[in-house]
Amino acid sequence: MSRFERRLPQALQHFLDQVIWLNLEELGRRQPLDPLVDLLTLPVRPEAELSVHCRGILPRDPAAAAPADLG
Known about the structure:
Helix content: 55-70%
Structural class: mainly alpha
Strand content: under 5%
Largest sheet: none
Number of strands: 0
Mean pLDDT: 81
Distance between the termini: 56 Å
Radius of gyration: 19 Å
Order of helices and strands: HHHHHH
Low-confidence stretches: none
């Protein structure tokens, strides 16, 4: 147990013990990625890869991204 963990209030430590931690770098290596999962991995990607991944996330047809008319 690290020094940081020993100083946490008991309620916070209990909460953190229940959290499921993900490694976004490992998740980003899985292919093919769902666009929403790919979005989660953007912060850990090298800058050179961002353009390619953003194009995969954004729809090619802007009309497809328009919200449905609920009126």
